[in-house]
Amino acid sequence: MPIRLIVGLGNPGPEYEQTRHNAGFWLVDNLVNTLPGCRLQRETRFHALAAKGQIAGGEVWLLQPQTYMNRSGQSVGALARFYKIAPDEVLVVHDELDLEPGISKIKKGGSSGGHNGLKDITAALGTQDYWRMRIGIGHPRNINSQQAVADFVLHRPRKEEQALIDAALEKSLTVIPLLCEGKFDAATMQLHTNK
Q1: Catalytic amino acids?
Q2: Domain range holding 186?
Q3: What is annotated as the active site (predicted)?
Q4: Is 68 annotated as a binding residue?
Q5: Is 108 in a helix, a strand, or coil?
Q6: Which one of 23, 29, 149, 166 is separated from 138 by 20 to 30 angstroms, measured CA to CA?
């Protein structure tokens, strides 16, 4: 099944725009900019900014929930039910503490790993069996910081981290067409290969 819904996770509002927790929003913003005539618009019934675009010859919904991270499922569930999109046709893009900046990975299913956005989406979809694109933001302990994780994700990346995250987002964008064609093995191999 090809991907029909790409969800970028983040928190709405200018105070969160540049924070690590908004890596999913960043990818969707970049993706929208590559699609002719595609523009995110407020969709009240889905509690989100949403757009419909053509990727790899198929129609794909792009979504940025405006519910705050821990209520993301409210938005994802509403759109998926309305358009009859199955969980395995959903790709959720989110920040990942367990990956270093500059790394992004694709996987299907698995636990939420403490990520409140994923927890809420799993509850709304009734399954963990949806695709995730994990954008590495690093962990405070890896940079010898005593900063609490909740505080860390709600701060801007350092300049050198931002450059690595931007590179990972760019690389991630190149595999989106493969995912929208249902070529998950090819997309995973391409993204997970260091070039």
Answers
A1: 21
A2: 5-192
A3: 21 (proton acceptor)
A4: yes
A5: strand
A6: 29
